[in-house]
Design a protein that fits this description.
The protein has about 500 residues and is an all-alpha fold. Among the domains are: about 15-135, no CATH class; about 155-265, no CATH class; about 395-495, no CATH class. Helix content is about 75%, strand content about 0%. The protein has 23 helices and two strands. Strand 1 (about 480-485) and strand 2 form a beta hairpin. Helix 17 (about 360-375) runs antiparallel to helix 18 (about 380-390).
Length: about 500
């Protein structure tokens, strides 16, 4: 087939599309939308389980083409009738029926001033989510998160709807756990806070939820930051990867906002004194409830409230009832604080060995490193810090710990030759190595910036100044090798060509 023949065939196909679909597009624009908006989806949530194209393949594809064209133009009123045909008659044609349908109906709700019609539109939106889960299973948690969030958004003043939204979001979070979206987590907590203010939930319920959501946020922040870091190491990104990074940045901001809102709401209720009093009063009753024990241990650790008898009881009971990696970690954390380093290493190592998730394993490895650091076993501390880094990229905390080790041992690594200038230089040069680690930590992990800057400020004046550097190695030497319990080649910060 020559090039000219191909052009003629393509032109014929183009004109055929215009002849067939143009009248349909024009007719769709003239249709009254009221019949669509007022349609009760509850009557079609269980349509006949027909094939992908319904009973009429031609009508299905015509409707899909028409609605898609109008949807792309954001002309949702004109798209609605053809979209509705698919929703009723070909519910398995494409998942976009539900994704686009939700977008369209949220637009209709926003534009509707009649309160009764608006309520009907909200009902229809919720039904879209239900039908999506029916015909496109596999993302039930995500879809329930969308449904619960929208139900809260549109009907939060109605107590019955508020309770329904809370229950839907609870189910969503139970299904998705660390995969829950920041938006779903936000509405889950705010719906619980509102129900607490209405005396439907109590403060202990809200505190327990705070523990659950905080744990998920901690994990999600680590996971998202790692994904972005790994992508940013590539020489070039395609459009999809750029979009992933952009969406992740927005998600991180939302997660940070959710955390700030939760902490602001609960700040008066999660002081150590109040948490200890609450858990002491409830321990006998709740000690067989694994979820309660885990929430309590998490909050007491988060608030640095472990120097209490109740934390010991909770951590021990948690480990006794279910020796998971996390319960082993809580026992290790308690042992570390009590300076029982041998036990701490044992518990943390168990947590590392049994944990399959690399992000969580990295956290446990860092605590192994911290324990060895407390024992003065610097080589093992550094080894485990680097192993933690290998399990979670784009994480600054292991490098801060290594920097601390270098700073703390800088003077011990120095010489004692009797030459004051030489000896002081050698005792201070370890701070260069420490500062480089802090600088690297904040470069790869913005969450470490504040801590890194504080440590750099603390040690920069203790490092060799320009004069002593000139006297010992000269300003024309760009690098300097430190040989102590570690070996590092560091940059001469006073180097000048």
């Amino acid at each position: 087939m020559n090039r000219f023949t191909k052009i003629i065939i393509n032109m014929r196909q183009y004109y055929l599309i215009i002849i067939v679909f143009l009248p349909l597009l024009v007719g769709a624009q003239e249709n009254d939308l009221s019949s669509v908006n007022e349609f009760q989806f509850s009557s079609v949530l269980n349509p006949v389980n027909v094939g992908k194209h319904g009973l009429d393949t031609v009508k299905c594809e015509e409707s899909l083409t028409i609605y898609n064209e109008f949807y792309k133009q954001k002309n949702y009123d004109s798209a609605a009738k053809s979209w509705l045909y698919l929703f009723q008659n070909a519910p398995k044609r494409t998942k976009n029926i539900y994704i686009h349908g939700a977008t369209m109906y949220k637009n209709f709700i926003k534009s509707e001033n009649d309160s009764l019609k608006r309520e009907l539109l909200i009902d229809n939106l919720l039904s879209i989510y239900d039908q999506r889960n029916k015909f496109y299973p596999g993302q039930e948690g995500k879809v329930l998160g969308l449904k619960g969030s929208d139900l809260y958004k549109y009907r939060k003043t109605n107590i019955s709807s508020l309770e329904q939204a809370y229950n839907i979001l609870s189910e969503s979070t139970s299904i998705d756990k660390e995969k829950s979206s920041a938006r779903a987590l936000n509405y889950y907590f705010v719906s619980a806070a509102k129900l607490t203010s209405k005396k439907i939930l109590n403060k202990e319920d809200l505190i327990g939820l705070f523990s659950d959501v905080s744990t998920i946020i901690d994990y999600k922040e680590a996971e998202i930051s790692q994904i972005n870091f790994d992508l940013q190491q590539k020489e070039s990104l395609n459009r999809k990867e750029e979009k992933i990074i952009s969406n992740n940045v927005k998600e991180l901001k939302t997660l940070n906002d959710v955390r700030a809102n939760m902490e602001k709401t609960l700040a008066p209720h999660v002081t150590c004194d109040k948490l200890i009093a609450l858990y002491e009063a409830k321990f006998e009753e709740k000690q067989i409830d694994f979820n309660w024990l885990e929430r309590a241990a998490q909050l007491l650790k988060k608030g640095d409230c472990i120097d209490s008898e109740i934390y010991f009881k909770i951590a021990a009971k948690l480990y006794e009832s279910n020796p998971t990696p996390k319960s082993a970690f809580y026992m290790g954390y308690l042992s570390l604080k009590q300076e029982d380093y041998s036990s701490a290493i044992s518990y943390f190592t168990q947590a590392v060995t049994d944990e399959e998730n690399n992000i969580k394993k990295a956290d446990y490895l860092l605590y192994v490193a911290k324990t060895y650091a407390a024992m003065g076993m610097n080589n093992k501390a550094k080894k485990n810090a680097l192993e933690a880094k290998n399990n979670r990229s784009g994480w600054g905390a292991p490098f801060i710990l290594i920097g601390d080790l270098y700073a703390q041992t800088s003077r011990d690594c120095g010489q004692n030759t009797g030459n004051l200038t030489n000896d002081e230089f050698s005792k201070r040069v370890g701070y260069w190595a420490a500062i480089e680690k802090y600088q690297y930590a904040k470069m790869i992990d913005l969450s470490c910036a504040q801590e890194s800057d504080q440590k750099i400020k603390k040690y920069i004046n203790q490092a060799p100044d320009r004069t002593s550097t000139f006297q010992m190695i000269g300003l024309d030497q760009s690098m300097y090798k430190i040989e102590c319990w570690y070996v590092e080649t560091v940059k001469n910060p006073h180097f000048s060509e």
